[in-house]
């Protein structure tokens, strides 16, 4: 198996990816979320890949960022130690050429760990597919970016779908849009950084598996390396995703909530051990270590709802329709006039991306401003 993963063709979905996927039914596959912690430095990316492989991860995951397909330039500012910067400009700083991802994919193959990457729009998806990845990951804010989900599903790669800041209806729509994919895995997630452990409601994994009939896992943004991943394992997770960094004091965007290599290796060991113990044995073991009340608080009631720490992000972190230029009353909306973007800081959320095809050709009932969310009140018909 190892030789096949590391061979030049390891990225292509096929027999060995099927076997690899089946393994996740017996033990959780571990995703080391490198994201943009490499800061565009190939040497640092290699260090992170090496650390993920040595810690026992099955995937090293990256993010292919093009700011223009994620945010509007006027979405607001973010405060950093060096001063205020437009969030859009911060995302621009995370952009690297496609050749960078080709090099890190080769490094992953050399280290016997699978390359995984998240596209954020159709441009990054096309660039990512040129590298022939074996799997694709859709991040939580893009779960309702249905054109992206459909295109990713039609690529022939297994899909991993994160479900933070989403409702059951959002998940149902994403699964309907991704039916063409050879397989799909839902990762329960709380879109908060860091996410409080008690917000995780880990029993929801069992609920999602029962409702949707697909493999489930968890994308964990809590700070502890053991509790949420181990409880997720007990509740049937087939995948565990956690951020990895070289140091929590690093300058990577997610370094403060990531695990350093030693802590990540500890997490992997704990997940493997609790998979061996089985559901009841794992929960009993964790209660003995962390206490009944803490474990029960993290397990929750299993009802899927927006977590307390992410409620305010709903409709702002995930996607909606925004104007991309100033428009006058009476003008007709074309595909170029609207984009599917995250709202984030100061803009007003628009209507859901699923309505994008329906509003094309509609006329404006009033002037529209560049960056504003598209509202039904803006539209008077064709």
How would you summarize this macromolecular structure in one to three sentences?
The protein is of the alpha/beta class and 382 residues long. It has helices at residues 2-6, 15-26, 42-55, 87-93, 98-111, 122-129, 146-154, 168-177, 204-212, 227-234, 261-290, 292-299, 356-359; strands at 29-35, 59-64, 77-80, 83-86, 114-119, 136-138, 159-162, 184-189, 216-220, 239-243, 319-323, 338-342, 363-364, 379-381.
List the main descriptive attributes of the protein structure presented here.
382 residues; alpha/beta; TIM Barrel; Type Iii Antifreeze Protein Isoform Hplc 12; eight-stranded parallel sheet; two-stranded antiparallel sheet; 13 helices; 36% helix; globular
Architecture overview:
The structure is a single chain. The chain is α/β, with parallel strands linked by helices and 382 residues long. Helix 3 runs parallel beside helix 5 and helix 10 packs across helix 11. The strands form four sheets. It has an eight-stranded parallel beta sheet. It has a two-stranded antiparallel sheet with strand order 3-4. The longest helix has 30 residues. A hairpin with a 2-residue loop joins strand 3 and strand 4. It is globular and about 65 Å long. It folds into two domains: 307 residues, Aldolase class I (TIM Barrel, Alpha-Beta Barrel), CATH 3.20.20; 66 residues, Alpha-Beta Complex (Type Iii Antifreeze Protein Isoform Hplc 12). The N terminus is likely disordered. 36% of the residues lie in helices and 17% in strands. It is built from 13 helices and 14 strands.
